[in-house]
């Protein structure tokens, strides 16, 4: 779509040369984020270099009623940064500086385009680190992490992004700049910091983030436990948590995921196991030693068939390597895979595993299961081939069934990937119309004209009215021609 | 149902409501003129599964009852909330959003919250969040309720995370002045030590260590100090029962960056949260105290014995306007605890 000439000329004036992308072939590079099945060529891409430019751009968009989609590294898996053909894609890639490291107050202030892992690397000399570690941490940016309220394998003990951010500078759609949170541990008035985390770019544009830092634990060891029955592994997870231990990470993989990961990175996983658990314990040497003994007893009690314990950092990294590369590893098993992200109450895990397996057989598509078992966050990976018959549609239907199952057992349709454009229909399963209406009212308080990332995260009520009954009554998607993947 | 009906009727008649749980924290914030709405009868545990580390209860459930149920399973609330009296309810605890001595290390009230059911100012019952730790579906409207003093919605039931009770807990005592205390805690907080509380009063720094016995012993060796015999200190601090608090002077709560230098404002000081929360007894002008807090990077609340004026630090104009719009989004007629936080919110 072509831009209004007056809008375009003002934008050129704000940005100067080289910071505005207008040519089709260059725009194509921005057509999707990590959800590559959803592609749209944006009208324009702006790459501002400072806060004032962002303010001016937003004012201009506000004036011309042009929608704005913010983008960090574009690693998101739910299409949150999917462009709009009549919208401006606002890349924050140039906001990549660490502005301040304040070891005394255990915080760092960074620009939104700084990579998650770069923060921990920069503060390492102080013996500190930034705890949330989404598996894309090598590439994903902190601005995107805040927008999605990202998690990671260490959430169980150290919390999500929302628990680890102290202050934000946010630019509203009318160009007004706000400080949300403070340099202290709280701020007067409503807790807008909680609201901004996970708001998927619908409420404001984040231009600065102050994150909490934690002391690096002196010891971290990971234990691998193999099971010949996945339900036993699930029960062992509950056993560990109820014993009073909070592991730094507690992950589970099923046989298909184990084999894929082992063939890919040779982490030393037992390929004949029905499931493995990876349990990381961190803290002082004494604590870790004490916890390992306890965990080992619990694992034995739940009939684990073998255990292995990392005795140095290299072994620890090797044991994690399989888990951290599980997605690309599974990606080698089939031409396409669809990654789900539901969360369930932990004690329902054995039952949910069984039902996912049944659904997989019914839909005749294989599923590799990778879980953040400690916090009940599931990542079933549905394998399919988009070039064969109706496999894409079957994968979609199967995915939607799995998310319905998550809601049915008291969980949620997304634990950490966000709703974006991907799970917009499943929002109708999780929330009632009045709740969605309340979300729209919150949005309007920040962005009256609906210009920030419109169409994402919260569905319009009429969309749910059209879809909702079908979901409840027979689980079939009513509009197979609609691209939903 | 009765509560929802009361709000729906109040909405229809534009009647302001004054929400009350156990009336233990009425002293905090502005007085609300409105028809009383009590959650006291709306009580009981809905779901508690110790191995999920999650509890869901009705808002009128007494805080004390919840603490006892958790204690029986060797669990507790991570944010150590103050009760300020036996009548305190869990709904009021989250609505006021106050956290106890462990706050900088184990998180705040809002950090523990996982979800809630509310009734907004239109009388609509809404559920946000859930009983799972990871949940990013929709805006985080549940955590927004924490510290909103019921002005955005009446909390009906609330789900929160709980933690195991640590195996061992000891308190170390150090003789030092305020500046040394701040500097010491700042330096220790950068190390992986099992600190879960730190407070300074009258020339004495107290540090609480929690965790496995072996870890505590090794931390104690690193830190030195003497084992304190004031076993009730943290409870008395949390509940403001220490001698320091027994006064008619205005009690200010300054929320500051933890490394901020000790205040030079006239008045007695108690430093808590490892420096991030400072209690100040002072008759100085509110304006002066707010300036001091602002200059140090924080904000000030007149917690008790206010002598007129704002209780909480006033918001900037655009921020107030935004929060007013947000209030309207939940409570279009302004009937829920109007003016409790700010007279114009």
Write a concise keyword list for the protein shown above.
heterodimer, A: 485 residues, alpha+beta, 7-stranded antiparallel β-sheet, 5-stranded antiparallel β-sheet, 17 helices, 36% helix, globular, disordered C terminus, B: 345 residues, Uridine Diphospho-n-acetylenolpyruvylglucosamine Reductase, domain 3, Alpha-Beta Plaits, 6-stranded antiparallel β-sheet, 4-stranded antiparallel β-sheet, 11 helices, 16 strands
What does this protein look like?
The complex is a heterodimer of chains A (485) and B (345). Chain A is of the alpha+beta class and 485 residues long. Chain A has helices at 5-15, 24-27, 51-64, 116-123, 142-148, 155-158, 192-196, 230-242, 255-265, 285-301, 313-324, 326-331, 349-362, 391-408, 427-430, 433-446, 461-473, and strands spanning 20-21, 44-46, 68-71, 88-91, 98-102, 107-110, 128-129, 165-171, 177-181, 205-212, 214-215, 219-227, 249-254, 275-283, 306-309, 336-339, 367-372, 377-384. In chain A, the strands form 4 sheets. A 7-stranded antiparallel sheet of chain A has the order 15-12-14-13-17-18-16, with helices on both faces. Mean pLDDT of chain A is 93; it is low at 469-485. Chain B is 27% helix and 26% strand. In chain B, strand 14 (268-272) and strand 15 form a beta hairpin. Chain B is globular. Classes of the chains: A alpha+beta (485), B alpha+beta (345).
How is this fold's topology laid out?
The complex is a heterodimer of chains A (485) and B (345).
Chain A: H1 5-15, E1 20-21, H2 24-27, E2 44-46, H3 51-64, E3 68-71, E4 88-91, E5 98-102, E6 107-110, H4 116-123, E7 128-129, H5 142-148, H6 155-158, E8 165-171, E9 177-181, H7 192-196, E10 205-212, E11 214-215, E12 219-227, H8 230-242, E13 249-254, H9 255-265, E14 275-283, H10 285-301, E15 306-309, H11 313-324, H12 326-331, E16 336-339, H13 349-362, E17 367-372, E18 377-384, H14 391-408, H15 427-430, H16 433-446, H17 461-473
Parallel strand pairs in A: 2-4, 3-4
Antiparallel strand pairs in A: 1-2, 5-6, 6-10, 7-11, 8-9, 8-10, 12-14, 12-15, 13-14, 13-17, 16-18, 17-18
Helix pairs in contact in A: 1-3, 8-10, 8-13, 13-14
Chain B: H1 2-13, E1 17-20, E2 35-38, E3 45-49, E4 54-58, H2 63-72, E5 75-77, H3 90-96, H4 103-106, H5 109-112, E6 113-119, E7 125-129, H6 141-144, E8 154-164, E9 168-175, H7 178-189, E10 195-201, E11 204-211, H8 213-223, E12 226-227, H9 233-238, E13 251-255, E14 268-272, E15 277-281, H10 286-295, E16 299-304, H11 317-330
Parallel strand pairs in B: 1-2
Antiparallel strand pairs in B: 3-4, 4-8, 5-8, 6-7, 6-8, 9-11, 9-12, 10-11, 13-15, 13-16, 14-15
């Amino acid at each position: 779509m072509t831009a209004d000439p007056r809008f375009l000329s003002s934008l050129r004036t704000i940005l100067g040369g080289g910071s505005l992308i207008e040519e089709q072939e260059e725009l194509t590079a921005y057509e999707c984020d990590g959800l590559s099945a959803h592609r749209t060529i944006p009208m324009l891409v702006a790459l501002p270099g400072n806060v004032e430019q962002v303010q001016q751009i937003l004012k201009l968009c506000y004036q011309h009623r042009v929608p704005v989609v913010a983008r960090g590294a574009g690693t998101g898996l739910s299409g949150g940064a999917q462009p709009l053909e009549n919208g401006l894609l606002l890349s924050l890639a140039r906001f990549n500086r660490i502005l301040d490291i304040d070891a005394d107050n255990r915080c760092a202030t960074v620009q939104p385009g700084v990579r998650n892992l770069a923060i921990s690397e920069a503060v390492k000399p102080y013996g500190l680190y930034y705890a949330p570690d989404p598996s894309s941490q090598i590439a994903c940016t902190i601005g995107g992490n805040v927008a999605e309220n990202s998690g990671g394998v260490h959430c169980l003990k150290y919390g999500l992004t929302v628990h680890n951010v102290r202050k934000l500078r946010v630019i509203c759609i009318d160009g007004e700049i706000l400080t949300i949170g403070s340099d202290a541990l709280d701020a007067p008035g409503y807790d807008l910091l909680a609201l901004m985390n996970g708001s998927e770019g619908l409420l404001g544009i984040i231009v600065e983030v102050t994150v909490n830092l934690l002391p690096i634990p002196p010891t971290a060891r990971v234990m691998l436990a193999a099971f010949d029955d996945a339900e036993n592994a699930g029960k062992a997870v509950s056993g560990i948590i109820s014993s009073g231990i909070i592991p730094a990470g507690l992950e589970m993989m099923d046989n298909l995921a184990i084999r894929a990961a082992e063939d890919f990175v040779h982490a030393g996983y037992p390929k004949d196991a029905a499931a493995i658990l990876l349990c990381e314990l961190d803290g002082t040497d004494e604590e870790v030693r004490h916890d390992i003994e306890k965990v080992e007893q619990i694992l034995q009690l739940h009939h684990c068939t073998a255990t292995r314990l990392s005795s140095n950092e290299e072994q620890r990294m090797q044991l994690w390597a399989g888990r951290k590369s599980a997605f690309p590893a599974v990606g080698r098993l089939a031409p396409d895979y669809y990654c789900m992200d539901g969360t369930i109450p932990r004690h329902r895990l054995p039952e949910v595993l069984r039902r996912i397996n049944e659904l997989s057989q019914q839909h005749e598509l294989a599923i590799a299961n990778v879980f953040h078992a400690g916090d009940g966050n599931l990542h079933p990976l549905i394998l399919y081939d988009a070039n064969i018959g109706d496999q894409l549609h079957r994968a979609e239907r199967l995915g939607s069934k799995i998310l319905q199952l998550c809601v049915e057992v008291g969980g949620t349709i997304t634990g950490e990937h966000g709703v974006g454009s991907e799970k917009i229909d499943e929002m109708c399963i999780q929330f009632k119309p009045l709740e969605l209406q309340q979300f729209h009212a919150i949005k309007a308080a920040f962005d009256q004209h609906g210009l920030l990332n419109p169409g994402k995260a919260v569905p319009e009520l009429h969309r749910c009215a059209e879809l909702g009954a079908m979901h409840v009554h027979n689980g079939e998607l009513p509009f197979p021609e609609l691209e939903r993947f | 149902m009765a509560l929802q009906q009361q709000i729906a009727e109040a909405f229809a008649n534009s009647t302001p409501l004054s929400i009350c749980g156990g009336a233990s924290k009425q002293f905090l914030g502005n007085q609300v003129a409105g028809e009383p709405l009590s959650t006291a009868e709306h009580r009981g545990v809905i779901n508690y599964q110790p191995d999920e580390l999650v509890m869901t209860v009705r808002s009128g459930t007494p805080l004390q009852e919840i603490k006892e149920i958790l204690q029986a399973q060797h669990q507790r609330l991570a944010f150590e909330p103050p009760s300020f009296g036996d009548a305190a309810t869990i709904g009021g605890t989250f609505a006021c959003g106050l956290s106890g001595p462990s706050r900088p290390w184990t998180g705040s009230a809002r950090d523990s919250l996982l979800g809630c059911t509310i009734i907004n100012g239109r009388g609509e019952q809404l559920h946000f969040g859930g009983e799972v730790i990871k949940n990013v579906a929709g805006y985080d409207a549940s955590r927004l309720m924490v510290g909103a003093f019921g002005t955005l919605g009446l909390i009906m039931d609330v789900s929160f995370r709980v933690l195991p009770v640590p195996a061992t807990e000891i308190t170390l005592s150090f003789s030092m002045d305020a500046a040394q205390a701040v500097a010491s805690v700042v330096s220790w907080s950068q190390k992986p030590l099992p600190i879960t509380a730190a407070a300074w009063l009258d020339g004495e720094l107290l540090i609480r260590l929690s965790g496995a016995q072996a870890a505590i012993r090794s931390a104690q060796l690193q830190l030195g100090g003497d084992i304190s015999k004031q076993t009730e200190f943290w409870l008395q601090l949390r509940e403001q029962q220490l001698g320091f608090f027994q006064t008619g002077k205005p009690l200010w709560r300054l929320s500051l960056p933890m490394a901020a230098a000790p205040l030079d404002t006239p008045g007695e000081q108690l430093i808590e949260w490892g420096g991030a929360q400072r209690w100040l007894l002072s008759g100085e002008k509110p304006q002066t105290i707010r300036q001091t807090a602002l200059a140090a990077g924080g904000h000030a609340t007149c917690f008790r014995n206010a002598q007129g004026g704002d209780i909480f630090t006033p918001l900037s104009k655009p921020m107030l306007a935004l929060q007013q719009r947000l209030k309207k989004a939940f409570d279009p007629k302004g009937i829920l605890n109007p003016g409790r936080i700010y007279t114009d919110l």
